Amino acid sequence: MENTEAILLRRTRFGDTSFIVTWFTLAQGKLQTAARGAQRPKSPLAGKLDLFFECEIQFTRGKKSTVHTLREAALLTPHEPLRRDYLVVQLAAYFCELLETVTEAEHPAPELFDLLRRALVHLETKPASLRAMLHFEAELVRLLGIHGQEGITPAVAIGRAGNRLPSSRPGLLKKLSEAKADQSAIPDR
Q1: Which of 3, 32, 93, 95 minimizes the number of CB atoms within 10 Å of its CB?
Q2: 61, 77, 93 - which closes a domain
Q3: Do residues 66 and 108 share a domain?
Q4: Sequence-distant (≥ 6) Cβ neighbours of residue 91 within 8 angstroms
């Protein structure tokens, strides 16, 4: 059995009572686990597997699959303040989707785990902003070492590295730009 800190990136229903959970972990990078019976009311995993939750997880490696078996999840940080605003949730989900797109399964990247953790903590106390989105993208490109040629934006570099950008990016970019314009229109008092 292995232990690691992990942030929940994605949770997909699997059968009537189970989930397939995608984590970004400190020790193994992106990792998928089967959380069997997690939706049962008396499951020890009940209430511990939600988007952005940071947990200490125990899992057993699969012998024939890259989907491992989740044995235990101890909630460390629920990042509950993220849920106060829909735009904050969208930006946090975008960060998770970016990491999922540009990273390989089970390739340790503690610096990327730290980037995601810092981004979620930032969004707990600050509103979603275009600046936060662009900063995350720039840091991701720097940490991946894919910044490349001058004149190439971080978004383009990420798109090339992952063969795509998340489909949510254009709509999110528009909403964050509108939010920035709305903030600029508020007169100082």
Answers
A1: 3
A2: 77
A3: no
A4: 123, 128, 132, 133, 172, 176
Count of domains in the chain?
2
What Å distances lie between residue 89 and 83, 85, 96, 119, 128, CA to CA?
6, 6, 11, 12, 9
pLDDT in tens, 161-172: 888 899 999 999
What are all long-range contacts of 106-111, with beta carbons under 8 Å and residues at least 24 apart?
106/28, 106/29, 106/30, 106/31, 106/66, 107/29, 107/30, 108/27, 108/28, 108/29, 109/29, 109/143, 110/26, 110/27, 111/143
What angle is formed at CA 39 by the lines to CA 74 and CA 106, rounded to 5 degrees? 55
The predicted-structure confidence for 88-146, as pLDDT tens digits, reads as follows: 999 999 999 999 999 999 999 999 999 999 999 999 999 999 999 999 999 999 999 88
* Chain centre to alpha carbon of residue 152: 24
Does one domain contain both 73 and 88? Answer: no
In 40-183, beta strands by DSSP E = 54-60, 67-77
Count of residues in the chain? 189
157 and 126 within one domain: yes
Query: Domain residues for 46?
Result: 2-77
28-62: pLDDT as tens digits: 999 999 999 888 889 888 888 999 999 999 999 98
Q: Of 162, 45, 129, 175, whose CA–CA distance to 154 is shortest?
A: 162
